[in-house]
Write a structure and sequence with these properties.
heterodimer, A: Rossmann fold, 4-stranded antiparallel β-sheet, B: alpha/beta, 9 helices, 22% helix
């Protein structure tokens, strides 16, 4: 589904991604862990098409479509969704109006029929319920005055409505208490299906207790340095990244 | 003296009606008045020469129907090219709604009593406005139907109209001033509002002239004790569009809420000067002005709040926020607080910002096109004030017009 090959990207002339490779098949959940500054958030921004990030080398395809050629909105319409680490507040634009515009735009791009306002309201209320947000949040400005946890749940609510193919969750667990964490995880788990894939970016193994990944990767200094199954997350949690560095140094010595 | 002003003074000599004494006084002031130049502070950013230079062919007096506002059941007074076309005939207890020329003594009572003499074009209106309307609401009367004064300006028109409003003690009324036109024309429209004790005025001024339609006007309000003003002003710019708003707290405990919006595109100009006089204690003013300025347009906002020595316990807030959509667009904003009392709470501020790129990206990342996201962001910025309009039918009527205007405004 998603294929990232040898991706090199920078922001403000600073090289962040230095040869990232990642292959994700339909239905898989991949967790990406790694120390601060490894390039985890940059990966999400580059994939979603944020301005100011330039790609020097490599390729990214989603179901064979070259993502890097597309505008941010076209990537979303192609089925990419990024749950932001820091969702943006937009006073004056209601959550409902924003979501309707997003769903309308995506359906139109896919040649699907528009949803009536009445049906959409029903869908949106249902999505709110699923992430434990009161329906009043639909009337409020997008993320305006929402608490950290409410913002994260609002991201998942958007994901429920947009039904993307590939979801990137950028530290959707940061700043959440255990209850909110479960709500987020349940939202994600409810969407797991054989034709939808997830990239879960996190610092902590805790989230992965709720969202069980098929693969865990460690991103460090702009590339994947180690991959494994769910047990790798536990090892990282127990031993930290220093252990990983030592091991890599040892490996390098051996091969030398 | 400018040649245009000279002609105006000459034309004024032919005006003769029950307001002759007042007109004469203004004429004398006008004869001594100086035509503004680039050095005149109050006109610094206005290319006043376009007003003078325009050669108008004179308008044909077609019958035009007033634009319908869905869901608004209003009492309409319609002027076409400055000529009175119709006055709502419905008789409502406590309301006198009558043309200026038929008003007689009522007009003389109200004419020129609230509008300050410092406004040059107010004086022009004094001597030339033979058409207008008088709205007199008896003490205690609550007029449910909004009164709408429509001014339609067509190609070649020169129009001078006057609105005189009095709300008796405890009276309640809604007055909508609705200006529209987009071809070459000149218009002065001045309105005076006397708001009695405990009276409540809901006021709208839709200055929707665009294109070549030039307009200089004013809204002048005097608030008696415990009275309330809730005013919304919406301006689209044009070749020259200028409004002076004066609100005087003449009685204590009065409350003035004033929202203003301007949306400019192309080479349009909009200039809003507001002056709030707190002459007595315990008055409250909340003034919020928001503008979006695109392409090569220019906005001017000058907001002055003057708190006199006796006006203790005044609460006054003035805020002007602007969104700049192009690097060729221009905003000249100057909030001024002048405080001579020592026990007051006042705040003022002005900001000029560019569109929030983070918000744009966020919306795009959900599949909304960049162009639509811009429209939604702009609309949101303005809609916060539209949402505060007490009349829902007017808000509903306004929103699609704003959206349409936003759709043509590009971020460059």
């Amino acid at each position: 589904m998603l294929s990232i090959k040898n991706l090199h990207a920078s922001v403000e002339d600073k090289q962040i991604l230095k040869g990232l490779d990642l292959e994700i098949k339909p239905g898989e959940v991949h967790a990406i862990m790694g120390p601060n500054g490894a390039g985890k958030s940059t990966m999400g921004y580059v994939l979603s098409g944020r301005e100011g990030y330039s790609v020097e080398e490599g390729s990214v395809t989603l179901d064979g479509t070259d993502l890097l050629e597309l505008e941010a909105e076209e990537r979303a319409r192609a089925g990419l969704f990024l749950a932001f680490q820091y969702p943006v507040e937009i006073p004056g634009v209601s959550n409902l109006e924003f979501l309707k515009a997003a769903v309308d735009a995506q359906r139109e791009a896919r040649g699907e029929e528009a949803v009536s306002s009445k049906d959409f309201l029903k869908m949106a209320r249902e999505a709110c319920k699923q992430v434990h947000l009161p329906a009043e949040f639909l009337k409020r400005g997008v993320n305006e005055g929402f608490s950290g946890g409410e913002k994260k749940r609002n991201e998942i609510m958007q994901m429920l409505l947009l039904q993307p193919k590939l979801c990137i969750l950028d530290e959707s667990d940061s700043g959440l208490d255990i209850d909110a964490l479960q709500v987020v995880a349940e939202g994600v788990n409810s969407q797991r299906s054989p034709d939808r894939s997830f990239v879960v970016v996190t610092h902590y193994q805790r989230l992965l207790d709720y969202i069980k990944p098929d693969y865990v990767h460690v991103l460090s200094e702009g590339k994947i340095v180690k991959s494994g199954d769910a047990s790798l997350a536990q090892e990282l949690e127990d031993q930290g990244y220093a252990w990983l560095k030592e091991q890599r140094a040892a490996d390098a010595e051996q091969s030398a | 003296m400018s040649s245009w002003l000279q002609t105006a003074v000459e034309r004024a000599a032919d005006v003769s009606d029950g307001l002759a004494l007042k007109r004469q006084a203004s004429l004398e002031l006008l004869c001594d008045a100086k035509w503004p130049t680039r050095k005149t502070e109050a006109w610094k950013y206005v290319p006043i020469n376009v007003w003078e230079r325009a050669e108008l062919s004179g308008a044909t007096n077609d019958t035009v129907s007033a634009p319908v506002i869905d869901g608004l059941d209003s009492l309409d007074v319609v002027f076409v090219n400055g000529q009175l076309q119709s006055v709502a005939a419905e008789s409502i207890e406590g309301l006198t709604l009558i043309s200026l020329s038929d008003a007689g003594a009522q007009a003389a009572d109200l004419f020129g009593t609230i509008k300050p003499d410092r406004h040059l074009f107010g004086l022009v209106n004094d001597v030339l406005a033979t058409e207008g309307v008088v709205i007199d609401v008896a003490a205690g009367a609550e007029i449910e139907k909004p009164i709408r004064i429509v001014n339609l300006l067509g190609e070649g028109a020169e129009a001078h109209t006057r609105v005189l409003v009095r709300l008796g003690a405890g009276a309640k009324a809604t007055v909508i001033e609705h200006y529209s036109g987009n071809s070459l024309s000149r218009n002065t429209g001045f309105a005076e509002y006397q708001v009695g004790e405990k009276a409540q005025l809901e006021h709208y001024r839709f200055a929707l002239q665009t294109g070549e339609a030039m307009s200089i006007g004013g809204c002048h309000v005097e608030l008696a004790e415990h009275s309330e003003l809730n005013s919304t002003l919406v301006g689209f710019g044009s070749a020259l569009s200028r409004i002076d708003v004066d609100v005087t707290h003449a009685g204590s405990h009065a409350f003035a809420k004033m929202n203003a919006i301007y949306l400019l595109d192309g080479k349009e100009l909009f200039d809003l000067h507001s002056t709030i006089e707190h002459a007595v204690p315990n008055g409250t003013t909340e003034e919020n002005v928001r503008g979006i300025v695109a392409d090569n347009s220019r906005a001017v906002f000058n907001g002055r709040i003057h708190i006199h020595r006796d006006a203790q316990k005044t609460l006054a807030e003035l805020n002007n926020r602007n969104l700049l959509l192009s690097d060729r667009a221009e905003i000249n904003t100057k909030p001024e607080l002048e405080i001579y009392a020592d026990d007051v709470r006042c705040a003022h501020g002005a900001t000029v910002a560019e569109i929030d790129q983070k918000a744009l990206y966020y919306m795009q990342s959900r599949g909304v096109s960049r162009a639509q996201a811009q429209v939604m962001l702009n609309f949101g910025f303005i809609n916060e004030l539209v949402d505060q309009m007490p009349n829902e039918a007017l808000a509903e009527w306004l929103r699609p017009q704003l959206r349409e205007r936003f759709a043509s405004m590009e971020v460059k």
